Amino acid sequence: MSTSTLRRGSRLVRRTQASPTAYVILAVVLVGSAFPLWWSFVIGSKDSAAIVQDPFSFIPGGHFLQNASTVVTTIPFWKALGNSIFVSTTVALFVVLFSAMAGFAFAKLRFRGRSGLLVFVIATMAVPTQLGIVPLFIVMSKLGWIGSLWAVILPSAVSAFGVFWMTQYLQEALPDELIEASRVDGASTLRTFWSIALPAARPGAAMLGLFTFIATWTNFFWPFIILDPGNPTLPVALQQLQAAYFVDYSLVLNGVVLMALPLIVLFVFAGRQLVAGIMQGAVKG
Amino acid sequence: MTVQSPAQPPGTTPGMPSRAGVSTRPAPELPSFAQRSPMKPRSGWRRRLTKLDEKAAPYAYVSPFFVLFGVVGLFPLLYTAWVSLHKWSLIGGKGDYVGLKNYGDVLAQPYFWNALKNTVSIFLLSSVPQVIAALLIAAALDSGLRARTFWRMGVLLPYVVAPVAVALIFSDLFGDKFGLVNHLLGLVGIDPVQWHKDVLPSHVAIATMVNFRWTGYNALIFLAAMQAIPRDYYEAAMIDGAGRIRTFFSITVPQLRATIIFVVITSTIGGLQIFDEPRMYDQYGLGGADRQWQTLTLYLYQLGWTQKNFGRAAAVAWMLFLIVIVFAIVNFLVTRRIASKGQR
């Protein structure tokens, strides 16, 4: 069956042109995606009097910075920002390192129990480990880690998904011949991992790091349980802001904007990679 | 000196016959570094070290994951069952063994059943429309658009907004008195909905937050799977005179079966544990004055950290764990059924 004969039959055969319907659907989705963020900026930039006066105007007011200065003094905003950066970066580095190590072994080394362990990893991807919070809390309090950032970092430092992802990635990105050649040259496994596997893993590792960073940055449940009000991450700090000012949405949504801003900036620069990462993961997973 | 080829499983010890299927390829005789170079063959201890490296290294590489996962993932989950069989307080610690009493106490509370009902309701309101909308958006994205990266990034934007922030924005939009949604409904002559008071509207509001954040993400997963469908199928369908809609249901949906199952199962696992959105929907965090939107995880938190009863909290956690597993399996079977219907 040749494509050219088919193409002659109908203009629609190769759908090179999108229908107007597709654009309409996507435009609606886009407005729906962006509007809530715009709305929180609009409300966050008014004073409460202006909101009462005209609650449904879509035009921002002039009080954004003024509100922001109230927000950052009500909650430990800068501390929370620093904590979020530290926790998310550390978790991302740990997950990438441990996943790359395990992925390298699963993809390129042969050992007893390899397939069994890999099946175990895949099975644990579906296990809701979040439900272990009660014992996790008991353990952390025994260790005296309640309120410590390490109590947030450690439980997130490994990811079954990450191992699976890096295994898949290295299987394709790293030719067996390269490993073999390095062995023949007498390189140790560590050296092979460090100088050959890691450089080959870099694009996949960067994507894993990006997704882990976002997941950690937006994580609320466990940090909310384990961290002290004086030493929060951003989502926990946002909860404090809500508790303090729930009725005054100009301040609450101002805090929302302040908190969302770093990841929106990240999105502007790395959004393309996020899209590619989700689409690659879908094909492989 | 011959260097052991990586094709040979390093895990097999001399006394132990290697399992069939593991060492399939015969090790090719490769010229070693030592033979090629004028250097003398390496000393015995060095060779043994290399051998040890090849045998032990794989385990060293996977062990950080397994050890840490065991400590922070698996152990707490299993230990939850142990805690649930004891009287256990947040402050006093472990008390007497009470058998299944905590389970009986929890199951006797109407609050548990209320939370279960709310969780399932919110889950259904978020997952079913979300999968349908995501499929639709994916189909739109898969149609030869101009500026496709722009559209793809556009649908993904909500993903970078934290659920906590999403919840605060939507709790304003869904305000009972001064919310924008009620204002817009008023413009078309609909009476204000009590989004924070009535049960179903509160579930709709919370489900909207989940859908806002995840629909675009799932649409991209579907898009990737759609692009993997051979274009010949569509060409053949068009020749047979099938329209766009018919093609979508007879070709696209059945071809996406595995992906739909994947998305449904991941959203089940996440959806049944929902906490952030209902927690932040009002400032008290109990799931409403009459627990209208109290989910199981919120209930678990309340038992453990407000009532300080870890025994009961662990019982709820363990039951929720089983519910998630059962739901995932049922979902798998049902989705497979539905998705394969189009194929026949």
Q: How would you characterize the largest beta sheet of chain B?
A: 2 strands, antiparallel
Structural class of chain A: mainly alpha
Number of discrete domains of chain A:
2
SSE sequence of chain B, one letter per element: HHEEHHHHHHHHHHHH
Give the CA-based shape of chain A.
globular
- CATH class of the largest domain in chain B, named Mainly Alpha
* SS-derived structural category of chain B: mainly alpha
**Count of helical regions of chain B:** 14
What is the average per-residue confidence, as pLDDT of chain A, rounded to a whole number?
88
Q: How does CATH name the architecture of the largest domain in chain B?
A: Orthogonal Bundle
Low-confidence stretches of chain B: 1-39
Q: What is the N-to-C order of secondary-structure elements of chain A (H for helix, E for strand)?
A: HHHHHHHHHHHHHH
Per DSSP, what share of the residues of chain A sits in E-state strands of 2 or more residues?
A: under 5%
Q: What report would you give on this structure?
A:
The complex is a heterodimer of chains A (285) and B (344). Chain A is an all-alpha fold. Chain A has two domains: 46 residues, no CATH class; 217 residues, MetI-like fold (Orthogonal Bundle), CATH 1.10.3720.10. Helices cover 76% and strands 0% of the residues of chain A. In chain A, helix 4 packs across helix 14, helix 5 crosses helix 9 and helix 6 crosses helix 9. The longest helix of chain A is centred in the C-terminal third of the chain and has 36 residues. The radius of gyration of chain A is 24 Å and the shape is globular. The N terminus of chain A is likely disordered. Chain B is mainly α and 344 residues long. Chain B folds into two domains: 84 residues, no CATH class; 240 residues, Orthogonal Bundle (MetI-like fold), CATH 1.10.3720.10. Helices cover 66% and strands 3% of the residues of chain B. Chain B has 14 helices and two strands. Chain B has a two-stranded antiparallel sheet. In chain B, strand 1 and strand 2 form a beta hairpin. In chain B, helix 3 crosses helix 14, helix 5 runs antiparallel to helix 8 and helix 13 packs antiparallel against helix 14. Chain B starts with 32 loop residues before the first helix and ends with a helix. The interface between A and B is large, with 115 and 120 residues.
